[in-house]
Structure formats: C-alpha cells, structure tokens
C-alpha cells in the first residue's frame, strides 16, 4: 500500500467542500489514516513549499495558505499518489477535466482547493513535515 499527503486548502474549507473532497477519495477506496485541521504556521509552509522559495508567487502562496484553516490528511491505498493527483485534477483549474475536484470547483490558480504530493518521495517528506512521522 502506498501513502500520500493531501491538504484541503483554505478556499475549500471556507466554501464547505471538505466532505465532498473526502468523499471523492473514499469513493476510490483510498483510506484516510490521519487527519487534522489547523491554521498552518509560516515555518511549516516554508518547509513544505521550499522548492518554490524565491519565486515571484512564493509570498502570496504562503499568505493564502495562512489565511484560514486547512485539513491535512495521510491517505493510503494502491497507487495512492497517482490516484489522488488524478482525482484532484490539473493544478491550473482551467486545464482540469470536469469530474475532478479542480475541474468541478476550481476558480483560481493559487486558491486551487487541494494539494497532493507529486511522488512517493515527496509524500514521505511532506508527511514528516506535517505529522512528524
């Protein structure tokens, strides 16, 4: 079984989409193994988004992610990383297919509802950042 990290971002939390998003993962027989809701700290986000530090959008991304609560989850299942990314849809919501989270609910490039780790290595690193495992 593979494990990945998902973050339901502040825009989705504020719009009341937590249940709908979780339902989509569970419908594909993925299992939530850990979950917490919190307003993330700058330190945690800097670690999480380290690869983007210095880029023009970095500070706006941090400000957005600190703007409210997020739901952070570890999700386990066969091919969990790839499945979650397919369910999430393309990062740019206009490129995301209908039937995906971003395709159905996306309205902004930064406020794009969800984050899913892009590889098993990234998932391990991100789980450690958020859950200290």
TrEMBL record:
<keyword id="KW-0808">Transferase</keyword>
<keyword id="KW-0546">Nucleotide metabolism</keyword>
<dbReference type="InterPro" id="IPR001564">
    <property type="entry name" value="Nucleoside_diP_kinase"/>
</dbReference>
<feature type="binding site">
    <location>
        <position position="91"/>
    </location>
    <ligand>
        <name>ATP</name>
    </ligand>
</feature>
<protein>
    <recommendedName>
        <fullName>nucleoside-diphosphate kinase</fullName>
        <ecNumber>2.7.4.6</ecNumber>
    </recommendedName>
</protein>
<feature type="binding site">
    <location>
        <position position="9"/>
    </location>
    <ligand>
        <name>ATP</name>
    </ligand>
</feature>
<feature type="binding site">
    <location>
        <position position="57"/>
    </location>
    <ligand>
        <name>ATP</name>
    </ligand>
</feature>
<dbReference type="InterPro" id="IPR034907">
    <property type="entry name" value="NDK-like_dom"/>
</dbReference>
<comment type="similarity">
    <text>Belongs to the NDK family.</text>
</comment>
<dbReference type="InterPro" id="IPR036850">
    <property type="entry name" value="NDK-like_dom_sf"/>
</dbReference>
<feature type="binding site">
    <location>
        <position position="102"/>
    </location>
    <ligand>
        <name>ATP</name>
    </ligand>
</feature>
<dbReference type="GO" id="GO:0004550">
    <property type="term" value="F:nucleoside diphosphate kinase activity"/>
</dbReference>
<feature type="domain" description="Nucleoside diphosphate kinase-like">
    <location>
        <begin position="1"/>
        <end position="132"/>
    </location>
</feature>
<feature type="active site" description="Pros-phosphohistidine intermediate">
    <location>
        <position position="115"/>
    </location>
</feature>
<keyword id="KW-0418">Kinase</keyword>
<dbReference type="Pfam" id="PF00334">
    <property type="entry name" value="NDK"/>
</dbReference>
<feature type="binding site">
    <location>
        <position position="112"/>
    </location>
    <ligand>
        <name>ATP</name>
    </ligand>
</feature>
<feature type="binding site">
    <location>
        <position position="85"/>
    </location>
    <ligand>
        <name>ATP</name>
    </ligand>
</feature>
